[in-house]
Amino acid sequence: ARKLVKDFKKHVDKPAKIPKSLEVSVLNIVWRLVANKDFGYDDKKVIDFMDFLHDITAETGLLVLPDFFPILNYLPKFLRNYFLKEYFVDEFKKICIDFTKEAIDEHRANLDPDNPLDVIDHYLIEMDEQKKNPNGPQFKSG
Fold first, then answer.
1. I need a labelling partner for 83 at 20 to 30 A (CA). Which of 6, 51, 116, 119 fits?
2. Within a domain: residue 32?
3. GO CC: one term (predicted)?
4. Alpha carbon 112 to chain centroid distance?
């Protein structure tokens, strides 16, 4: 919170867009619960992620057109990519999977089943327990 206040002080007495530090702070709250990790306000990976999120949000109007006009789903993929910007969804999915996979791999390497720190630790522990289940696992990896 102190870092956020310090960053907000840079924007006093002048009109400004919502600072990226606020967006990173919101991500940090969620990611602290999920992966027990914080990001710096100048972390390039997070800033790139947020910029991409802004881009995909700006194109949301086009992305929902097939929901209202299902016939658009029958267009070839290259046309949907060109006109409806569908490639944003594929890219965003890949970015999210890579981001999450990296965190899961780090957690798997440092997992202490007796001292889970966050949601990922609990999930990995539960996955390991389910592997012992004679009825088959309830959770899947990958």
1. 51
2. yes
3. cytoplasm
4. 24
User: Rounded CA gap, 140 and 142, in Å?
Assistant: 7
* Domain region containing 12: 1-41
* Angstrom distance (rounded) from CA 121 to CA 109: 11
Q: 2: left (phi > 0), else alpha (psi -120 to 50), else beta?
A: alpha
| pLDDT band per the 50, 70, 90 thresholds, residue 119 | very high
Contact between 43 and 24 under an 8 Å Cβ cutoff? The reply is yes
Q: How many folded domains does the chain comprise?
A: 1
User: pLDDT digit string (tens) for 50-106?
Assistant: 888 888 888 778 888 999 999 999 999 999 999 988 888 889 899 999 989 999 999
3-state secondary structure of 139: coil
Interaxial angle between packed helices 119-131 and 87-109, expressed in degrees from 0 to 180 and rounded to the nearest 10: 80
Do residues 119 and 131 lie in contact, with contact meaning Cβ atoms separated by under 8 Å? no
Is residue 136 situated within a structural domain? no
User: Does residue 28 lie in a domain region?
Assistant: yes
Which of 36, 45, 33, 40 lies closest to 7 in space, CA to CA?
40
